[in-house]
Amino acid sequence: MAGRIHIFDTTLRDGEQSPGVSLNIQEKLQIASQLAKLNVDVIEAGFPIASKGDFEAVKAIAQKIEGPVIAGLARAEKKDIDRAWEALQYAKKPRIHTFIATSEIHMQHKLRMSREEVLKRAVEMVKYARSLCEDIEFSAEDAFRSDPAFLYQVFEGVIAAGARVINIPDTVGYATPIEFGRLIKNIKENVSNIDQAIVSVHCHNDLGMAVANTLAALENGAQQLECTINGLGERAGNAALEEIVMALHTRKDWFSGATGVITEQIHRTSTLVSKLTGVSVQPNKAIVGDNAFAHESGIHQHGVLNERTTYEIMTPESVGLKENQMVLGKHSGRHAFEERLKELGFSLNKEEIEACFVKFKDLADKKKTVSDQDLEALLSEKITEI
Ligand code: KIV
Ligand code: ZN
Predict the structure, then answer these.
(1) Which residues form the Pyruvate carboxyltransferase domain (predicted)?
(2) For residue 275, what are the CA distances in angstroms to 51, 90, 289, 294, 367?
């Protein structure tokens, strides 16, 4: 049994770290306002110390966007935390999100710090952040590749220091679902004060398993899920918000918890993010790709026209689309062809339909899809022949 699942959207921070993506303040505000309509619980608005532009964007979002918690990222360093707070202080519900790496690889080669130093720094900086802001999230960067015993120690320390949320990232997308689920379960069993914090996960998609890992974590007790619109993010991206949310929405029989996301806003949010970032969505992308609710083959079209649940596990309306799409191509059958003719206002007798259907199949063999304009041209040609 599970209750409310918190959705933490990091499109404006980790999503913006996608190669080639850079959003200005107005664009960030537009996306943040749409994320508020989508009703996510937390918007990570940026990394204030990263640039003046990012600082101003986080500040503007903190001042103007109401509803969700507004978070800003900071390394576990005083100057980062001060800068984050400078931008976030205007928010009705501000959160400082501070992080430090805990894996041997990162501590040795990037931070050049010992375990003891990392633990001390994490605890000190959470205490410091807590002196400025009530809501503190702590992330153990590269948690999945960290020594679990050390992770437990770090999480215990930062919770005692006042962290309200502890986040477990699979920073390099290395985990598989069973392993990641097990890690979450072990953290819940081995961190003595875990009940005083919300357990969060943050999965990257390097092996294409970010959503699967996130759902495995949820099954093992995670309460906050970090994700981005369209799965945007560093390298291969982050867990896609729309996939997580619609998996939960569609499979209530599998998991009883619910998010607060207004699913009918999903499509609009995806289109806006794609337009403003310039990163297009692949056609076969789950939930938001152009083909996600399109049916081409005759067998599928016939099925859906008779009873949509034959080939649709969720409705297009549930993600904010008006209707599904019957794509006419060489695999389409008479049934869908006749339906489309009726929709276009043609009423033909059996013989005319038969003659046009033959012409349509000829054309479909030459073209990938047959558009309404193609049909109209074909029909006017055929009708004048008849
Ligand atoms: O992937 C990661 O580890 C991060 C942290 C900063 C949360 O983005
Ligand atoms: Zn990340």
Answers:
(1) 5-267
(2) 23, 29, 14, 21, 28
How far, in Å, from the CA of 169 to the mean position of ligand 2?
7
- What pLDDT, on a 0 to 100 scale, did the predictor assign at position 386? 46
For CA atoms 286, 291, 292, 298, give the dihedral sign: negative
Which residue has its alpha carbon closest to ligand 1 atom 2? 171
CA within 13 Å, CB half, 203: 30
CA distance 339 to 342: 5
Tell me the pLDDT tens digit for each residue of 280-321: 999 999 999 999 999 888 888 888 889 889 989 999 999 999
Do residues 37 and 70 lie in contact, with contact meaning Cβ atoms separated by under 8 Å? Answer: no
pTM of the shown model: 0.91
Rounded (5°) CA angle 167-170-175: 135
Q: What's the mean pLDDT in 99-121?
A: 98
